[in-house]
């Protein structure tokens, strides 16, 4: 089993104090609380500094790609003069719309994982296929099974198309040591969708540690 560790509340509390020392409110965005304990550490840290700094802790119910978009939009809104509550409302809207689909290259890492309960059936009975995994309400869930790597990657785009149709979207590719495939998948998406903001980023550690190298996924939402 692969293990990850969240930061201690005391460490986060020090970060909050430093970030808010000029009297600014602090917005603390985090990976889904259903896959990591970091959000809970942040809530404890928030309580530790409640008389010193105004901290808002936000559970993205998602991972690295979604957090990237949320942080970017929050920053753009802040620069445009938006208040904290307006920014939080936008983050909630993104959280509701966000689509995250992944496929694994090698099932042995999921087999060793004790965290990804939704994958147990796939690991036990379908070792010869590539599962398609979705992040739904902050937790991983098997959404389908495809016979080859090429078809699995294509299916990720098909799932996005089913949800967004022809609407303009923000789109990211996330991966664990699969940079070339990630770049190719983004290129395919650019030919297929109307993309606004795009990027490629590493898969968040808490997920990559359990799903293994070669895992690749897509993050998308209507703008």
Structure summarized in a few sentences:
The chain contains nine helices and eight strands. The protein is an alpha/beta fold.
Task: Give an overview of the whole structure.
The protein is of the alpha/beta class and 223 residues long. The protein folds into 2 domains: 87 residues, Rossmann fold, CATH 3.40.50.10170; 124 residues, Hypothetical Protein Tm841, Chain: A,domain 3, CATH 3.30.1180. 45% of the residues lie in helices and 23% in strands. The chain is built from 9 helices and 8 strands. A 6-stranded mixed β-sheet has the order 5-4-3-8-6-7, sandwiched between helices. A two-stranded parallel ribbon has the order 1-2. The radius of gyration is 18 Å and the shape is globular. The model has no long low-confidence stretch (mean pLDDT 88).
Q: Strand pairing plus helix content: what structural class?
A: alpha/beta
CATH class of the largest domain: Alpha Beta
Per DSSP, what share of the residues sits in E-state strands of 2 or more residues?
Answer: 15-25%
Helix content: 40-55%
Q: Give the total of domains.
A: 2
Helices, by number, come to: 9
Q: How does the major sheet shape up?
A: 6 strands, mixed
Can you write the helix and strand succession as a string? HEHEHHEHHEEHEHEHE
Distance between the termini: 38 Å
Give the overall average pLDDT: 88
The low-pLDDT segments are none
**CATH architecture label name of the largest domain:** 2-Layer Sandwich
**Can you tell me the CATH topology of the largest domain?**
Hypothetical Protein Tm841, Chain: A,domain 3
In one word, what is the shape? globular
- Round the Cα radius of gyration to an integer and report it: 18 Å
- The number of E-state strands comes to 8
The largest beta-sheet arranges its strands as: 5-4-3-8-6-7
